[in-house]
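=== RUN LOG ===
request id: a7f3
mode: sequence -> structure
chains: 1
length: 823
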Amino acid sequence: AMEIRKDAMSNPLYAGTLVAEDEKAICLYLPITDKTFSYNVANLVRTLTADWPEEDRVYITGLPVAEDTFGVEMLVQMATSAPMAGLAIFLLLLFFFRKFSLIIAPMVVAIVSVVCAMGLLIGLGFDVHIMSSMIAIFLMPIAVADSVHILSEFYDSYHRYQDKAETLRAVIGHLFRPMLFTTLTTMAGFASLATTPIPPVQVFGLHIAFGVAVAWLMSMTLIPAYVMLFVPQKNLESLTADPSENHAKAGPLNRFLVGLGHFSTMRRKPIVLIVCVLVAIAIYGISTISVNDNPVKWFMPDHEIRVADNVLNRHFGGTYTAYLTLAATRPGQCNCVEKAIILETETEARFAKIFPQETKRFLAEINTLQERYGTISAADAHKAFVELVRAAEEIDSEVLSSWFELADRVNYLVAKDLGWDRFTAELAAFEGVRSRDRQALLEALAGQEALTGEDLINAALKVCDRFTSLSFTDFVYEMEAEMTAPLFKQPAMLNYLEGLQEALAKHPVVGKSTSVADALHKANFELNYLAAPAGLAETELSAYTERNQKHFAVPDSAAGVGQVYVQLEGMKKKDSLFHMVTRDYQEANLWVQLTSGDNQDMEKVVAIVDEYLAAHPSPTPLKAEWAGLTYLNVVWQDKMVKGMMGSLAGSFAVVLIMMTLLFRSLLFGALAMIPLTVTITLIYGIIGLVGKDYDMPVAVLSALTLGLSVDFAIHFLQRARDLQEELGSWRAASLEMFKEPAMAISRNAIIIAVGFTPLLLAPLVPYRTVGFFLATIMAVSWLATLFILPALLTTWRKAAFGGDEISNDDQTGETKRNAKAQS
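=== RESULT ===
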C-alpha cells in the first residue's frame, strides 16, 4: 500500500488530479460524450454507492452535471412557480375588485396566453432551456396587465354610466390606443432579444412577444364579451353608489395616491433634484458592475452540487476544466533558409572551438547550399540535405581519419613502464596523424603527466573518443532528425510548454495543469531509474537519488523523446497519451484545472496565457485556442453582454420612435422614456453598488424593464393629455389623474410585482434573482411614473399643453366630467 501511495504521489498525472495531495480523497473523472447524459450518470453513481459505509462520502460535481441538474430542477420550478403566480394574481384581483365573476376573464387570458406561447415553442421543436422555462412565469403577470386596466377603469367608471355596454365603450375608447402601444412596446422589448447571438435567448424573447400579442388580442375581445355575457347586472349594483362611498376610492391606496399626486405637483423641484442625485449615484454604481457568471452558483449554497464543489476544490486541483490546444501557425517542416540558420548556430556551438578551420569550411558549404536552394520557390530541402551529408563526409574523412589512426596507435601501446616521456616520444613517431591532432591530444592531457601505464592509455583514449564523436556527418543526420521531428517531439517545444505551465501555476485559481510534458517526465524517470544497492551510506543514497531525479525531465533530443513516446504508446491505456497530444504529435492539449468556475477567473487565466505567449516567443510560432465548458461560458457571456447591450440600445430607439408617433409629439415621446431611463439606470446602479454580478438573469431583465416600465408612462401621459383636453386645465387634470388612472396603474404594478414573488421561494438562484429584481423594477417604474411625470408636466405644462390653459378652479374635474357626460 505504501508503494502504491508513493507511486501515485510521485506521478504528476495522478497527484492533485486522481489522488488528493493531502492524501484524504481520491477522484474519478467520468468523460461523457453529451452533457445530457450527466444527470443520469450522476444518479447511477449515487445508486452504485448507496450501500457504501457512511464514513465514505461520495461527492458529485462538475459543470456538465451542474447544468444538466439545473435543467431538471428548472422544469420542476416551471411546474410549481407558474401556478403559484397564477394563484397570487387571482387573489390580488379578488382583493381589488371584490367580484369573483369579474376576475375569471383575466385568468383565462393569462392561461390561454401561456398555453399558446408554450404550445408554439414545443410545436416548433424547441427544447425547454433555462430561458424558455421562464416563459410561463414571465407571461402570466404581463398577460393580465391589459385586462386589469380594462377592469379597473370599468370598476371605477361604471357609476357614471350605470350600463355595461356604455361603460365598456367608454373604457375601450380611451384605453385602446395606450394599450395598443404598451403592447407594441412590450413586444418590442422582448423581440429585441432576437438580435442577440444566443439562440435560447432569441427563442425566449420571440415567444414572450407572441404571448403578449395573444394576451392583448384576447383582452380586447374576450374581456368585453365576457363582461356582457357572464357578469350579471345585479353584481354591479354596488358600483352605482356615489364615488365618495366607493371602496376603491375611499381605501388606503386611493388616499395614498391622492396625497402622492399633490406632493408630485407641488414639490416638483425637490423631486427633480432628488431624481438627478439618485441617477448620478446610479451611474457610478453602473461603472462598478462586474460581469460574471458561474453555473454552479445557480444553486443555493446548501445544494449538494455546491457542497461537493467546495469539498473537491479543497482537496484537488480543481473541478473546473479548460483546455488549451497549441499548434504551429504554419504546419509543416521548416524550409531551406530556416534550416540553414539553425545549422549555422548549432555548428558554431558544437565545432568552432575544437575544429575551427573545418567549421569555417562547413559553414561555407551551408551558405552555398542556402544560396542555391533558398531562393528557389518550392526548393527540395531533401536534395540540399543529401549534398550537405556528402560535404560532411568529406570533412570527416579528413579530420576524423587522423584521430581514428591516433586512437588505434594509442590503444596498441605497451602499458608496461609507460610514462609521460615515453608516451610523448612514441606519439611523435606515429605516422598518418596530423601534427595539430597530436598537439590537441597533449593539450587535453595537460595536468595528467603523472599517469602511467594503462591509466595513461585510458586517459588518452578518452580524449580520442571525445574528438572522434564530433562527426560532422552524424551532426547533419542528428540535426535533420531534430528539425523534421513533429512539433511536440522537439525538446525545445516541450520545455516551452513546461514554462507555460509554471506561469499558470502562479495564479491562485489554477489548481493544476497537465500536459504531455508531465507524462514524459514520469516515463523518462522510470526508464532511466537506477535502484541503489542495499547497505549504502546516506551520502551514496543521495547521489543515486540525485542521479535519478535528473531524468525527471524531458529528454534532451527529439530521438530521446521519440523513444519515450514509443514506451508510452505501448501502455495498456495508450489512448491516455493521445488525450494530451495528437497521434502525429503536431498539436498538444494542455489541461487546466481551476478551483473557481467564475467567468472572471477564466478570463484572467486566458490573459495570463496571452501575456506569456507575447512575452516569451515560442521556438516555433504557435496558435493557441481554448476549449472546455468553463471557457465556453466566457464566450457565451461575452456574446450575451454585447448582444443584450445592442438589443437594449436598438429597442430603446424603436420605443422612442413609437412614443413620438403615438403622442405625435417629440416632447411627450421623450417624457414617456424618462421613467424607463430612470428605472433602468437605478436598477443597474443598485446591481453595481451591492456587488451583484451581471449574469444571465440580470441581462434578460433589461428587456423586461424596457417593455414594462414604459407601459405605465404611456397610460399616464395618454390619460393626462385626454383629461387636460377634456377639463381645460392641467391642475384639474392632475387631480383626476391620481384617481382612476393612477389606481389602474397601481393595481397593475402591484399585480405584476406580486405575480413574480413566487420566484423568491424557488431553490434556484436565477429564479430568485428574477423575482427580486422584477418586483424592484415594478416598484421603481411605478414610483418613477407617478413622481417624475407629474413634476415634469407641471414644470413644462405650457410646452406640453399649450399656453392657453383655462383655469376654471371653481369647478372640480369630477363635476365637469359628470356635466359633460349628462350633456
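=== NOTES ===
The CA atoms of residues 45 and 60 lie 8 Å apart.
The first strand starts at residue 320 and ends at 328.
=== END ===
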